């Protein structure tokens, strides 16, 4: 590349010398001085300028990210069939010129936002779904020229392939793909399937026309205001339904908790009652056994009861008056004469 710049600079400098010698010749002629030397300088500098200009016109440097198509006035088809690869090349000056194409990756964006797309304003893709709903698609594609098909693209499209091929192809493929899905599938359940289908179809279309699709980005999907409002209402209804289900579940859990507490209280009451009943039975058995023991003792010692009676009276009572016409509470032993 530096060689072509140097040669161009030398050609420009040579033409400046031609102009300078020409001006000097005019001045010397007006002063009635000899102009033979200046005229010789004009011819020599003009010859050098033509030489360097011709060399500059014939030298072409192709960058690594570029390819060159040679348009030739001497070639049978009007162009060379071999595309110029990166490096320094020589073409026939003034009979051939080179059209340079970049094979680097390019990004083309179509967006509803006014400052995001290649075209200012709303450049989103309007498409209609299988159930008749209109949606607006924002998309970006990353693509490049296929180095093996640069000449084909030049012959068919020249440098108009972006606006003439890429843009209509992208918009057409997206519209065709969206028309195969319902609106709820486009924005939710089958969005990834839609993207994959668009990318696959678009890659095939671009490959047929000498382009390489590197990536397709489905940026955003926008709906009409009416459908967007219906989606919002549906989401609100779903949220309310979820909230109602949550409340019902909460009440059910509270009821279950209360039931478990009641069962616990019930079980505790049953256990307490069973304990009290068992204690009563034990007490009754103990009392019965005690009475039986007392009865056995009295059977063997019938006078023990009188003794205990007298024992309870003494020593606090010295004299006891009893009615003469009533029997004693306890039979007293008969006294021997």
Identify the notable features of this structure and list them briefly.
four-stranded antiparallel β-sheet, Tetrahydropterin Synthase, Chain A, 56% helix, rod-shaped, single chain, 337 residues, 8 helices
> What does the oligomeric state look like here?
single chain
| Poorly predicted residue ranges | none
CATH architecture group name of the domain at 106-223: 2-Layer Sandwich
State the shape.
rod-shaped
Give an overview in words.
The protein has helices at residues 2-30, 36-58, 150-156, 161-178, 183-189, 191-208, 225-300, 304-313, and strands at residues 59-62, 66-72, 87-90, 96-102, 106-110, 125-128, 134-145, 211-223. By secondary structure, the protein is of the alpha+beta class. Among the domains are: 2-102, no CATH class; 106-223, Tetrahydropterin Synthase, Chain A (2-Layer Sandwich). The strands form three sheets. Strands 5, 6, 7 and 8 form a four-stranded antiparallel sheet that branches. A two-stranded antiparallel sheet has the order 1-3. The longest helix is centred in the C-terminal third of the chain and has 76 residues, at 225-300. The radius of gyration is 58 Å and the shape is rod-shaped. The model has no long low-confidence stretch (mean pLDDT 83).
